[in-house]
Amino acid sequence: MDSSSDHSPPSSLHSPGDVQNVKFCQWCGGPTKHEIPEGEERLRAICTSCGKITYQNPKMVVGCLIEHDNKVLLCKRKIEPSYGLWTLPAGYLEIGESAMEGAIRETREEANADVEVISPFAQLDIPLIGQVTRIIHFFSFFLVFVNLLCNSRFLVMIMTSLRQTYIIFLARLKKPHFSPGPESSECLLFSLNEIPFSSLSFSSMVVTLSLYVEDMKAGGKPKFHYGTINKRYFHLVSNISIYLSVIYKV
């Protein structure tokens, strides 16, 4: 694709949809403003108090595992959560996108890279994200005394956001050019032996890259993987042994 190609999204992506109905922050209750954040394409509800964004999207994360010269491309996160840790370029699927379209967009946003998708590589279901769920359950009796958390709709929203599906595509660079986007501080290529497993951002990244390394060492042909990540609580993300994952290879 030449440099004159227009990467601008269709005008429908700028449509506010229901976002203007979001008047208050889901995290602190502060009033919101409606703007398109830097590096994004859609109108968002942004809290004027804490600065957090209320996203309206399906809780599906899509991204690319990019191969180039026998290396993989990783981005160092410049935002929370997992600030300063490494990840594949990935993010939430937008309403109206296919999984592949979302993965390509996220790669462009986070690594300024145009990619060609080769095939799906992994689908990982994570029933409960993080340790917040157990904390919520443990303190549920006390939450009735907190006005914000007394709202059952707020609790349902939290619990829903803790369930995610990751779809990662195998991809290659169309051109050997990449650089950090607004949410990344670095973008680097790593050989299999250089992948920083102790500094990866999320359990999904640890599992995905572990499966990729396993495939490459077993014959160099990546397979499709499907599985569920059930994590033990209060363990390091980088400890692969904590994931009770049932992985099916095709």
UniProtKB/TrEMBL annotation:
Domain of life: Eukaryota
Gene Ontology terms for molecular function: ADP-ribose diphosphatase activity; FAD diphosphatase activity
Keyword Transmembrane helix: yes
SUPFAM superfamilies linked: Nudix (SSF55811)
CDD domains per the UniProt record, alphabetical: NUDIX_Hydrolase (cd04511)
Keywords on record: Hydrolase, Membrane, Transmembrane, Transmembrane helix
Nudix hydrolase domain boundaries: 57-213
Class of this enzyme: hydrolase
EC id: 3.6.1.13, 3.6.1.18
Record keyword Transcription present: no
Record field: transmembrane: 135-156
Entries under Pfam families matching the protein: NUDIX (PF00293), Zn_ribbon_Nudix (PF14803)
Protein name according to UniProt: Nudix hydrolase 23, chloroplastic isoform C
Organism: Glycine soja (Wild soybean)
